[in-house]
Amino acid sequence: MKSWISLFLALLLGIALGITLALSRISPSARTAEVYADRSTSTKRSEPLSKVKDETPPQGPRVAYDETTFDFGKMDTDEKGEHLFVLRNIGTKPLSLKKGTSTCKCTVGEPKKELLAPGESTEVVVNWDTKGYSNEYRQKAHIDTNDPEEPIVVFTITGKIQPNLTMIPRALLFGQILKNEEAQGQVRLYGFEDQKLEISDSWIKHGKLQNKVETRFRPLTAQELATVQEAKHGILLTVTIKPGLSRGPFGGQLMLETNYREDEPLEISISGLVGDEVSIFAPQWNESLELLSLGILRDQKEVKRTVSVLIQKPIAEIPELKIAEVVPANILHVELSEPKSVRNGSAVQANVTITIAKDAPAANYYGMTPDRQGRVVLETGNPDIGQIKIPIRFAIEK
Question: How far is CA 345 from CA 125, 258, 261, 384, in A?
Answer without folding.
Answer: 63, 40, 44, 18
